Amino acid sequence: MSAARTTEDQLLLGEWACLGILYPAPLHGFAVAARLKPSGDVGRVWSLSRALTYRSLEQLSIRGFVHPVAEEPGLAGGNRTILAATRTGRAQLRRWLAAPVVHLRDVRSELLLKLLIADACDIDISAMLDAQHAHISAMSVVLAAQVAADPADVVALWRVESASAALRFLERLPRHGC
Question: What is the pLDDT of residues 20-56, one digit of tens each?
């Protein structure tokens, strides 16, 4: 699943996904969970079970990044709480989207999630994508030197190829809106 938090302020990817889903408009937890199912629009990049979705929403609420704004009747009885991103939560999401992914291994998960959320929230991340390209390009130089020094280093070779693929992906992205 996702890595442990390194600081109290850092969110897990599932929490970022929930915050990104709530950024454009308020929703109830069940609707957020539906989008995070493996077949959901966000879940095809980063999926969470319903229980983990509710846990993520709870963590966002504790941090003051989301808050309840209304209730509506649930389909099976009881009420569903409608949640919205707070001003602080919205600012945190924009800050997270503006930061390039640090590790090459996180391009598949974190960068794709950022691309999906930025598009859904209509947030321009073109500067981040330029910084991401520069970061991976710099890593590629170091990795290529490692492979040149030891051609039998399969890990470095894998990372060189992964970096090349990530750079090609970034170069193919349409820059309008991103």
Answer: 999 999 999 999 999 999 999 999 999 999 999 999 9
Cα of 85 vs its chain's centroid, Å: 16
Task: Quote the tokens at residue 26.
Answer: 């308020």
Query: Where do the domains of the chain lie?
Result: 1-100, 124-178
The Cβ of residue 49 has, within 10 Å, a number of other Cβ atoms equal to 14
pTM of the model: 0.89
One-letter amino acid at 133 equals H
From the candidate CATH numbers 1.10.630.10, 3.40.50.1360, 3.20.20.100, 1.10.10.10, the one assigned to the domain spanning 1-100: 1.10.10.10
| pLDDT tens digits, 102-143 | 999 999 999 999 999 999 999 999 999 999 999 999 999 999
Q: Where are the alpha helices (DSSP H) in 12-111?
A: 13-22, 29-36, 50-62, 87-97
